[in-house]
Amino acid sequence: MERPFLAYKGDDPYIFVSYAHEDDALVYPELQRLKDQGFNIWYDEGISPGSTWRDEVALALTQCKVFLYYITPRSVGSSNCLKELNFSLSRERRILSVHLENTKLPIGLELSLSDMQAIMREDHPEAAYQTKLVGPMSAAGFRKQLARWGVKAKLRFPVNPHMLRHACGYALANRGMDTRSLQAYLGHRRRLEIDHQEGGKMRRLLYSILP
To answer: Whole-prediction pTM value?
Structure first.
């Protein structure tokens, strides 16, 4: 099966994906959905066997933000998947396992994953599954997607998530929310100051940014 895209290479946070090659048809659509949501994905998409393969995999595991393990009867029997998992455990990477099929785990693997987060694909409708999957990884993906939306909207400045807080404050002020309610809603400890534009309906929220 044709690989959906090249593995990520760069300095931004990324997800390392471990899976059995026999599960390409199951895993590749999963990877494409994650990439479409803005996540950087590193997966084995054709590294030659030998020392180069081991070195590149070890480096990718060491630097990844999340280790995503797709569990099937084939992947739990894969020596490469088990090596990748054990290496991630030794380096204390954040581990998320997704059971794509009903799979009985070998007792040693069950012990290794006993206190790690797991998602049973068959237990959730599609929307709920996607929400549960991206939850542990959403911060980096959301920042990247938000930045892309800013570029698409042709804004002349970089967009970041904190701007949504500002936008919310402006919108609520414009709708007539009082200062005290705004302060409580936005979680500010200092008093907010409202600037009323003379002769206009616009109410601008001016507040200090707290760490």
So the answer is: 0.65
